[in-house]
Amino acid sequence: MLNHRRILVLGAGRSGRAAAALARDRGAQVILSDSNPNAAPLDGVENAMGHHPVDVLAVGDLMVVSPGISVNAAPVQAALAAGVEVVGELGFAASLLPSGRTIIAITGTNGKSTVTWFTAGLLAQAGRRVFVGGNLGTPLSAAFEEDWDIAVVEVSSYQMELPGSFQPDVAAILNLSPDHLERHGTLENYAEHKCRLVHALPEHGLALLPSQDPLLSRLTEGHPGETAWMDSLPGVLVKENRACLEQGEVDLSGLTAPGALNRWNAAVACFLAVNVGVDIQDLSVDSLTALPHRMEPVADSQGVLWINDSKATNVEATARGLEGLEGPMVVLLGGQGKAGSDYGQLLGVLRDRARAVVCFGASASEIASSLSELNPCCTGGLDEAVSKAREMVREGDSVILSPACASFDEFVDYADRGAAFRRLANDESAQGAARRMS
User: Fold this and answer.
1) What whole-number distance in Å separates Cα of residue 73 and Cα of residue 35?
2) Residue 384 and residue 315 in contact, taking contact as beta carbons nearer than 8 Å
3) How much is the pLDDT for 121?
4) Are 394 and 355 in contact (CB under 8 A)?
5) What is the pLDDT of residue 59?
6) What's the rounded Cα separation, in Å, for the pair 274 and 279?
7) Separation of alpha carbons 148 and 402, rounded Å
8) Cβ contact 318:343 at 8 Å
9) Please, which of 254, 282, 299, 335 could form a disulfide with 306 given CB 3.0 to 4.6 Å?
10) Looking at residue 181, what is its pLDDT?
11) What is the pLDDT of residues 232-279, one digit of tens each?
């Protein structure tokens, strides 16, 4: 219990509110602070919206920091200078978990949400009581509201700035490419935060790592657990429509989520499930579904498949998604580009697969310039891009929104953009197909 402890929770978003509620319910005196004066208050705690009460830092027992707030933020540094214990939301929740619970932690630049979702789905099929969350959906601080024996937790690099006592039993780092450098500074620093997850393993723990990433191999060297590899054994690899593990093979041909990338994600999920005790004979991927906005089919009309991959907010994510698809496609790229993005990296995969490329949003001209040999067309917003795609697409093609950019030029976030694409695809795809075939 946290009776009479004075706890300051920094950040009143989803993670911060869950941590504040957990601390409140455990008997702590809680102050919930957010720099946004319009942040919603939480019942049963002292709310300090619009400012961070620096005057309470020196007398507080603990500061819990939401992942959206950097360790370098002024109130965090002030608390550290005052000798106050500081921990992230993930570490705070982990410190209160009862012993005997199994935790699978999944990180990486791309694909971690899908692997987390698929892993939880396989465990639930096998009859396990599963909590799924972390950076995906439900914060770990809210796990105390559910009855579970295995947690599948997506973990971001932000959450590993102040990881506290968070200790998974199995940790997977799926891949690494430059991202969030505005916060971490360098690729190596970003990678080091990811690798803290592996170094937190117990001696009986297991790390699943890419087989050919020298930076991750170097930064995870000497971790306390055992190591398995992606694309090698011991570990997991994919051969055609089969996931190959040391324990045997799993048929991937029934997976409804499209593309080779999703087959790979499902194979990794199979590995993780088997390594927390699920019999490989009990695994079936047939009922697994794509997460919203991640290679998600949203319309299929008159022989045209519309795929929403709005979560692909960087070039590497777009490249990986498109590489896994077959057949001619019209690709929608655009939004608010990230600093340093090299859209020319997409040339190879687009040459092989794209019937046409439509660039939209704030970075449309920059993307089109990088891909000029493909003669892309530029439009205004997403609605115009969908209209242009409808004119270009043919029966048997796919239209895929895989933007390689953030969404903030036009939308609240990638989910808002994906939802708009879904509406446009379903409102207009059948009409467009009818016009083309008339």
Assistant:
1) 12
2) no
3) 97
4) yes
5) 74
6) 6
7) 35
8) no
9) 299
10) 77
11) 999 999 998 999 999 999 999 999 888 888 999 999 999 999 999 999
Burial of 369-394, coded b for 16+ CB within 10 Å and e otherwise, reads ebbeeeebbbbebbbbbbebbbebbe
Nearest to 404 by CA among 355, 325, 342, 351: 342
Dihedral angle sign, alpha carbons of residues 174, 176, 182, 188: positive
Is 152 strand, coil or helix? strand
Write down the pLDDT at residue 435. Answer: 39
- For strand 150-154 and strand 170-173, is the pairing parallel, antiparallel, or unpaired? unpaired
Q: In what order do the strands lie in the sheet with 6-10?
A: 46-49, 29-34, 6-10, 62-65, 85-88
Highest CATH level, class, for 296-437: alpha beta
Question: CB-based contacts of 259: which residues, under 8 Å, 6+ apart?
Answer: 295, 321, 324, 325
Domain topology for 97-282 = UDP-N-acetylmuramoyl-L-alanine:D-glutamate ligase (3.40.1190)
Angstrom distance (rounded) from CA 333 to CA 364: 8
Which residues of the chain have a pLDDT value below 70?
A: 428-438
The SS3 assignment for 317 reads helix
Tell me how far apart the alpha carbons of residues 295 and 304 are, in angstroms, rounded to a whole number: 15
19-28 confidence digits (pLDDT tens)? 999 999 999 9
Cis peptide bond N-terminal to 37, omega within 30 = no
Pick the CATH number of 6-92 from 3.40.50.720, 3.20.20.80, 3.30.160.100, 3.40.120.10: 3.40.50.720
Cβ atoms 437, 390 nearer than 8 A: no
pLDDT of residue 180: 80
Model's pTM, two decimal places? 0.85
- What pairs with residue 360 in β-bridges? 334
